[in-house]
Design brief:
alpha/beta; globular; 149 residues
Length: 149
Amino acid sequence: MENPFDDTYFMKKALQEAEDAFEKGEIPVGAVVVINDRIIARAHNLTELLNDVTAHAEMQAITAAANFLGGKYLTNCTLYVTLEPCQMCAGALYWSQISKIVYGARDEERGCINLKTKLHPKTKIVGGVLANEASNLLKRFFIQKRNLN
């Protein structure tokens, strides 16, 4: 029997978080952390609400997952995030020793891949899961922002 809890399933959950961010006027990036097919953390960007440049979805998700697990390491966990992590978030993910990162849309300018940010040697990274949906949400957000200004 096929497992319904695949990368697409969990990326849809991350996209729901991104939609929540969009509704709050935040850049629409969402994230969930999963262990054993169970979501243990949900987060989205809160940089505007918290007036904090470090309040990215990934940072919020790392903290929530670590609190849930009762420790700082996220081994055996997967992060699903709608946008490729930036250098800051990739650095935090390195230290968390997360096992896998799955992202939606690429960030050609500020993403960890083009900036050659190191991830933990045991971390696997998979990109492009529901990339069109994630990218379209970001585009819609910035078009709306431009039209309001």
